[in-house]
Amino acid sequence: MRRTEEAHRRILGELAREPAAALGRAGEPIEDALVEAARARAARLALVMQRDALGLRHHRVVEQQCLEPPRRPTPRRTP
To answer: Whole domain around residue 11: which residue ranges?
Structure first.
């Protein structure tokens, strides 16, 4: 009986951990996309700074070629 209880406890532990692991796996693509977006923003800023250092003050070409997606408005919470 003791061995059965131990096996049951282990199974319950595994069942409790699995949703957390699945949630973590589901979040990985989002995390990867956020890292890539941050890298792209940093590269764009570096380009603008380099152009500025060379005396190019108008960056409309960069704005046209390196489009940033529009930010979504933050939804308002209702009480």
So the answer is: 2-65
